[in-house]
Amino acid sequence: ADLDDFIKRALAQENYALAIRLYYLAILKELSLKNIIIWKKDKTNREYLREMNRTPLAADFTDLTLIFERVWYGNII
Question: What is the pLDDT of residues 9-42, one digit of tens each?
């Protein structure tokens, strides 16, 4: 799915937690399209982190995941 419209809508509604979640999903989509990860509906963030651990993007992806989880699950904006 094209997430850009959903992201714009979330930002317009000042729903920043949802916007960050959608950006994170967009990142997962790009990584999957570039065959860096294998996307699965029921895969956890930890599984993606393990999968990314073998790439040069591991540190950045870890940072992004931590930010996403703090905002989405910890309600920190």
Answer: 999 999 999 999 999 999 999 999 999 999 999 9
